[in-house]
Amino acid sequence: MRDILRSPTGIAGTVLLLIVFGAALFGPWIAPYDPQAFHATARLQGPSWRYLAGTDQYGRDLLSRLLNGAPATVLFGLGATVLGVGAGAIIGVSAGVAGGRTDTIVMRILDGILAMPELLFTLLIVTFLGGGLGQALLAVAVTFMPGMARIARSAVLSVRTREYVLAAQARGESRLWIVGREVLPNVLGPIIVEATIRVSFAIMIGATLGFLGLGAQPPSTEWGLMVAEARQYMFRNPWCVIGPGVAVAMTAMGFNLFGDALRDAFDPRRKR
Amino acid sequence: MSLAYLLRRLGSIVLVLAIVTLAVFILTAVLPGNAALMILGQNASADSLAALTAQLGLNRPLPVQYLSWVWGVLHGNLGMSLRLSLPVSQVVGEAFWNSLALAVTALVAVTAVAIPLGVVAALARGTVVDLLIGLFSYVGTSMPEFVTATLLLVLFASPGAQMLPAGGFVAPGENLLGFLDHAILPAATLGLILVAHISRQVRSEMSEVLSADYIRAARLKGLREGRVIRRHALPNALAPAVAVIALDVGYLLGGIIVVEEIFAWPGLGRLLIYALQNRDLPVIQAITLLLATVYALTNLAADIAIAILDPRVRYA
C-alpha cells in the first residue's frame, strides 16, 4: 500500500476511489432529495444552491440521482469482474494444470470467442438474456472470462516448471494441494492487477449497455441510463448529461489509475 | 516469415471463424422470439406465425439451418434479410463501406496525432508536458464512447454553437466536404480512446529505446538530435506500437457500434443493433462473420508488419 501511495498515479487513483466508494456507501443517505421526486416548478435547471447539480426533465434533483446511482455502478463493476475473473481463472488454471488435449481444446474455443470484438460479444449475450441490470452483469462477466482464462493459464504455465512445484511433486503431494498451495498464490498477482483494471472496463460497458437501453431500466438511477433519458434535453440543460457522464468517467478512471499503480507495486521492473 | 507459417495462420483463422459462426448461431437460435414473431407482432395468430416461420425456413432442425447457411456462404450467398426483404450481401455491403469510411478516417487521424504525442511525451519525460499528456491519456481511456459523444455534441452541435451536424451521413463519393463535416464528431469520439492508448504505448517504447546504448552511440558520433530520433529511435519504437494499433482495430470494431447508433451513421454497427432487435439472424451472422474476419486479418497483417519493421523477429 505504501508503494502505491508513492506514485502520483497511485495517489490520484486512491483519492478518486475514496470519493466513489464514499458515494456508494453513504450516497443514498446524504442525498438531499428523493431521487424519484418530481419538482414540477424546477425542470431542467442548471446548478444552484437549491439543486447543487441541477435538475432533469421532470425536475428531479440530479445530485440525489447521481448519489443513488453510485452503489449500483460500483457493485456492477465489482460483481461482473469478480464473476468473470473467478470463472476465467478457474478455467485457465484448470486448462494449464491439465495440459495436453483438454488444454488445446479449451484454448481453441477461447480463441474463437476472443476473435469477436468485445462489445459485439456482450451485445449478443445481452440480447440473448434479455435487457436488465442483472443480465447485463452476467453478459459482461461472460465476456471477461476468455481473456482472464488466457492470462491465468499463461501464469500457471510459467510457474509450472519452477523448482518449488517440482519439489512438491517429488514430495508426492496431491495435484489439488499443489494447485492450491503452490501454484495459485504465485499466479494471484497478475490476476489481481488485471482484475482491477477490468473493473473500469466493466463499469464503462455496463453504463454503455444502460445507455443503449439493454441494461438498467427506467426509472433506475443508473448513470448510463440517465444520459440516455436526458439526451433529448441536452441542449436545453447540458448538466443533465454532463453529471452522469463525468461520474462514469471518474469512477472508471479511479480503477484505471489504481490498477496501474498496483501493477507497478507488484512488478518492481516496471517502475520508472 | 515462411509461406508455411502464413498458410498455417490462415488455416487457424478459418477454424476460429467456424467456431465464431457456430457460437453465434447457437446463441441466436436460443434467443426468445424468432423473426416471424418480430415481423407479425405479439398479436399474430398461431396459424400465420407457423406459416411465416415455415416460409422463412426457421422450422428446420438447427444443424440443417446452420449447414445450409454455411453452404450458402461458401457459394457467396449470404441469404435474404428476414426483415428488410433484401439480399444480406447488399444490405451489409452498403453498411460495410460506410463503416469503413468512418473507421479509416478515425484511424488516419489517430495515427497522425498519437505518434507525435507519444514521442513528445517521451522526449519531455518527467516534465509538465509529459504529465499533461499522461493525464489526457487516462481521461481518454476512462470515457465510454457515449459519454465522449454526448460531451462533443453539447460542445459543438448545440443550437447555439451549430458548428457541426449532430448526426447523419453524406457519401464521400458524393460530397467529400459534406462527408468530413459529418464524420468529424464520430471519428473524434472513436479516436479519443485510441489516441490515449497508442500515445501511451509509443511513449513507453520510445523512452525505453532512448536509453539504449545505440542511441548514446549515435549521439556520441555527433549526429544531430533530430536525426537520432527519426533514423535510430523512432523505427525501433514503432514496431510494438503497430501491434497495439492492430489490437485497437478490435476495439474500433466494437466502438463503432455505439458511435454509429448515437450519430445515426448508416454503418454495420447501426445495422447490427437493428438486426438484433428484430432477430434478423442472417444479417447478425453476416456482420459477426465480417467483423471477426476483419479482426483476424488485421492481427495477421500486424504480425507481418512487425516482422518487416523489426528484422530480428522470425516466425517459423
From TrEMBL, chain A:
Residues 70-259 form the ABC transmembrane type-1 domain. It is found in: Cell membrane. One of its GO terms (cellular component) is plasma membrane. Pfam families: BPD_transp_1, OppC_N. GO terms for biological process: transmembrane transport. The keyword Oxidoreductase does not apply. It is a multi-pass membrane protein. This is Peptide/nickel transport system permease protein. It comes from Faunimonas pinastri.
TrEMBL record, chain B:
Residues 96-302 form the ABC transmembrane type-1 domain. One of its GO terms (cellular component) is plasma membrane. It is a multi-pass membrane protein. One of its GO terms (molecular function) is dipeptide transmembrane transporter activity. InterPro entries: BPD_transp_1_N, MetI-like, MetI-like_sf. CDD domains: TM_PBP2 (cd06261). It is found in: Cell membrane. The chain crosses the membrane at residues 12-31, 100-124, 131-156, 176-196, 237-263, 283-309. It holds the Pfam family BPD_transp_1_N. Keywords: Cell membrane, Membrane, Transmembrane, Transmembrane helix, Transport. Belongs to the binding-protein-dependent transport system permease family. PANTHER family: DIPEPTIDE TRANSPORT SYSTEM PERMEASE PROTEIN DPPB-RELATED. This is Peptide/nickel transport system permease protein. It comes from Faunimonas pinastri.
